[in-house]
Structures are given as C-alpha cells and as structure tokens.
Amino acid sequence: MSVPARKGGTTIRLVDCAKTFPNGTRALERTTLEMKGGETIVFLGPSGCGKTTLLRVIAGLESPDAGGRVLFDDEDVTGLPIERRNVGMVFQSYALFPNMNVAENIAYGLKVHGADAAQRAKRVDEMLQMMQIAELRDRRITELSGGQRQRVALARAIAVQPRVLLLDEPLTALDALLRERLRIEIDVLLHSLGITAAYVTHDQGEAMAIGDRVAVMNKGAIIQTGTPREIYYKPASAFVADFIGTMNRVRGTVVDGFLELPGGRVPWTQGGTGTLEVLFRPNDARIVPDGEAQLRGEVAQHFFLGDRTRLHVTGAADRVVVVETTEHREFRPGDRIGLRIEPDTLLKLRD
Amino acid sequence: MARTRYFYLQLGFTLLVCAFLIVPVLMSIVAGLTENFFVGVRSGFTLRWIGLVWELYAPTIFRSMYIALATLTVTLVIGVPTAYVLAKRPGLLTRLVEEFLVLPVAIPGLAIALALILTYGGFREFRTSWLFILVGHVLYTLPFMVRSVLAVLSSFNFQTLEESAASLGAGFWRRFFGIILPNVRSGIVAGSLAVVTLSIGEFNLTWMLHTPETMTLPVGLADSYASMRLEIGSAYTLVFFVMIIPLLIALQRYSTQRVKTTRHA
C-alpha cells in the first residue's frame, strides 16, 4: 500500500446532536460521541434506527437541530456544508458518475480541489494500484461488477485524503463471498491509512469484524458503545443481546450459590436472590458426558450448519435453549444430552 | 420456424394499414411534382411548383425554423431546471406545478391562443411580433421538455450522485453542470427533438396568434391550400416533409436508444 498514511487521523466529536425532520420525525435523539483519530467505529442497528442520519450529520448532508455541534479536531464544522468538510463518502449504491470512466471518477475530487493534470494522473495511478484495479483504468462504469464498482468508489473517496471516511452500508449490495473478501480489504485499508472512519451497517457480523468500536443503535439513540468483544459478551441491554447474535434467556432461582433451573443447577457467583433472568451464548453451553453435566435436556431439533451444529434443547430450562457445538457426532431428536455452562459466561442484565 | 397462415395474415394487415397511411402522403408528393395534377402524371414532372413555393413562402420557412430554435432555447433554459427541481423536491406543490405544466397539452390550442390574445392583445408591439407566437409555442412544448428530462432523472439515483460529488468538494453549480446535466443528456436530446418537431408543425395556436407579417410554415400551408392551386399546396407540403421527417426519425431513434441505456444502468 503506497498511499502516504495520515497517522493520527482527525478526532470527530458530536456534541448534543439531535435530528428532527421537517415532518416531525425524530430520526436522532440527542447524541454526544467522540471518535478518536484513526479509529474505525461501526454504527450498528436495524433499519430506521438513525444510524444513517447520524452518518449524514457527520458528513454535513444533514444539519443537527439547534444546539448540536460537530467538531473535526478543534474546528467547529457545524455550519459548513459537506463540500467544505473534506469527508470521503462510500454509498451502498456506489454512486459512481456514469458519465465518466474509472480514472475520471477517481480524479474528480482531485480536479475539484484544483490538482493539475500531472498530479491527478499520479494520484489516480496510486489509487488504482492500492485497490488492485489498475486494469480497470479506462473502463466505463457500466462495464464493472459490483465489487469492482465499490473498489472504485473507495479509491475515489480516499484519493482526496479526506479527514474522515464515511461508509454507508458499503457491502450490502454485494453477494456473500465478495462481501467477506471486500470487508477484509476495507479493514486492512482503513487501518493502514490510519484514517478515522465511520461505518454504518445492519449486519452484526460485519460490525464485529470491522469495528475498533461498535455503537449499537435503536430508535434514534446509541444504546451501547464498546469493543466488539464487550458488545458481544457484555451486552448492556436485552435489545443489544438479542440484536447481536443468538442469546439464550432463561429464568432460574438462586439457592446457596447455585442457580436452579428445571434441568439441573449451575454455579452462580454474581449475587442476587430469588428468581433471576439470565443470558448465555449458544456456544457457551458445552455438551458433556452425563457424569459431568450440570443440566440435562432433550434434543428437540437439530440444524447442521456445516462448521457447527445447532441444537434446540428442551427440558434444560424454562424455555427452549439453543446450543451450538463443533462436534462431528450426529444428534437426533429425542437424544438425552448433558450441558455445562461456565459461571462467568452467564450474564445478568441490569434492567 | 415455419411461417403459418397467421404470419401472412398479419403481414397483409400491417401492410394494408401502412398503405392506408402512406398512400395519401405519396399522392401529395406526386401532386407537388406533376405539371398538372388533374391531367395526371402524363402531363410530366416539374420542379416549377417548388420554385414558386420558395418565391411565395420562403420567409415562412425561415420564420418557422427560428421560432423553433428560439422555443428550444427557452424550453431548455426553463424546462431543464424545472425538471430538476420537480425531481428533487417531490411534494404536493411540485405535483401541482407538474399538472399545471401539462394543462396546455390538454386544452385546445385555439383556447390558449384566445386567452393569450385576451391578456396580451392590448400590447400592440408584442401582439404583432413573432415573440407572441414564441410565447404560445413555449407554453405548448414546455411540458414535453420537462417530462422527458424528469423521466431520465427518476431513472437513476441522482441525489446520491450529487451527494458523493459534494463530499468530494463540488459546489452546487459544479454538480449541476458536471454531474446532473451530462447524465440527463439523453432526456434533453429527446426533449429537444420533440420541442423542435412540435414547434415546426404547430398550427392551432399559431393560426390564431399570427399576423400577415408573422406567418409560419403550417399557417402558410393553410393559406396556400385555401388560395393557391393544388400543386402549389402539395409542393409546399413536400418542403414541410423534407424539414420534419429527419427530425421525426432522429426522435424515434433517440427514444429507443434511451430505453436501452436506462435498462443497462
């Protein structure tokens, strides 16, 4: 990668930014957020959760309601329109200019910024090299595949060395295999450039893989911000827990350092008394021989997923428990199995 | 595939319909080129009538051309930005504007002309100049330009294109001329051809609006049919065909091309 990295990157801060549309829709609740220089932060949530609005406020495509401020380092850019903020944008629909070929698309921003022909050609070559699309230089946009288009769109956005890169569901329009490949490329790219990046997606797998931090959003508000690991293993609310992967929710009673469930009991170290709602991930319940089992249940359904098998187990808890195992053995409905759950993988929500 | 009876039946029917439409055109062309139509082709062919048409009506031909070009200029300057605004701000107001724009197509030209005369007839200088006809033509053709550009604008996500251009530093005018216009070119070309064709052929409005000094080609045609011999009228028609048919062909070609390109994009 030959592009001079702007190490450090711009720190982006949103202060009290809310967004109400003229028709009265409250798309974004009052939000305060800091993105450290060079950090990739993923805004994750279901459609209509306000993640795209948030991105557009950072970009300058939407202005926050009165009182909100957007800062790039120490500069207040709230009043600046997008064309004067120097942000790079990548859209789900690529948004390449159909009246220009690949090289002209990449050179567009450079031209607008007043770079001369020689500078433009040099930079375009660098970008083509970096994105490994040198052979596409003179192609028309209509001759490119989706993956190629998104590479060109990335090259175009990065060519002008923006202060922040904003990606709005950049991989959603691509097929699964390509999505995975391009995701890795983008991840490597963002970190080698050291650019501050905001990445919007509804795909939790993508969010986990690409974000230094993930901000989970719902109904216009950020519910939890944290590293992918924190979000996954320490969800702050039931919404986060359910949105990120599968989560088992069971009800048990605390008795003498154990949590008693219909199918047995597991050690309990997190305090509390009486009946509790407790969460755990499907892969945190291990299938063990009967002698070591804490809980016992019966296989109700089984789904072979290739790299793992997912079981729906009844009898272990007050409702169906989802268990995932990488074991090769074949399970059948009606099989009796034993389960073991490590105490520290059990989760008690604050609410 | 073997051609069935139905194929020949359909072919025959199609040819019959074509003949029904084309034979009068051919008759008119022949009439304009024969020495004496009542005697028939036996009387021999001549270009005399065309020469005579040129002597009598050359100014109407040129007037029709420059009115068409002026109409085109005005509809471009008004119509393209109007289409852009309509596409960018879809709402009740813009819907109403769009409906209003289309009204002149539905209302008989004579009625519009009368309204124009009632309103502006008092301004003598304006009433007697070719600009009066220009106003009528712009009213009549503007919706064709707006609709044509609007159709292309709604066939792709131009707002996102503009946003990405803006993120790269381009201000409004730069985006409009560098991104929007080049990408709606096909709509502008199709709209332009429609406007020029309609303006050159417009009779209803113009017949009411014209003065003897501002006669256009179609009005001249009516004049010649009413007061000249049949051959002159036919020769005049021939001149009109020569002007309008290339435009019609271009229009046809361009609108089919557009369908193809929008499908690809």
Description:
The complex is a heterodimer of chains A (351) and B (265). With 351 residues, chain A is an alpha+beta fold. Chain A folds into 2 domains: 12-243, Rossmann fold, CATH 3.40.50; 248-348, Nucleic acid-binding proteins (OB fold (Dihydrolipoamide Acetyltransferase, E2P)). Chain A is built from 8 helices and 20 strands. In chain A, the strands form 4 sheets. Chain A has a 6-stranded mixed beta sheet with strand order 6-7-8-3-9-10, sandwiched between helices. A 5-stranded antiparallel beta sheet of chain A has the order 13-12-11-14-20, with no helix packed on it. In chain A, helix 2 crosses helix 3. The longest helix of chain A is centred in the middle third of the chain and has 18 residues, at 176-193. Chain A is elongated, with a radius of gyration of 24 Å. Residues 1-6 of chain A have low confidence and may be disordered. Chain B is mainly alpha-helical. Chain B has 2 domains: 1-46, no CATH class; 58-264, MetI-like (MetI-like fold). In chain B, 82% of the residues lie in helices and 0% in strands. Chain B has 12 helices and no strands. In chain B, helix 2 packs antiparallel against helix 11 (217-227). Mean pLDDT of chain B is 87; it is low at 259-265. Chain A binds chain B through residues 59, 61, 81-89, 91, 93, 95, 97-99, 108-109, 112-113, 142, 153, 156-157, 160, 162, 166, and chain B through 156-157, 160-161, 163-171, 174, 179, 182-183, 185, 264-265.
